[in-house]
Design brief:
By secondary structure, the protein is mainly α. Helix content is 89%, strand content 0%. Helix 1 (3-25) packs antiparallel against helix 2. It starts with a helix and ends with a helix.
Length: 64
Amino acid sequence: MDVGLILKIAGVGIIVAASCQVLSKSGRDEQSMLVSVAGIIVVLLMITGKLGQLFEMIKDVFGL
């Protein structure tokens, strides 16, 4: 796995956590929840390509 991908995911997590805290403290809990859901979707979109490569590699290793 690429270290750059892990750092990007960590960066998204830090930004989402900070923005959720700020929104939660200001009384905007609905927006805080939407930001956290958007962060999860962004991370899932980032790793879908890598998951496809992983499945192809597994198929090649086991000759499927």
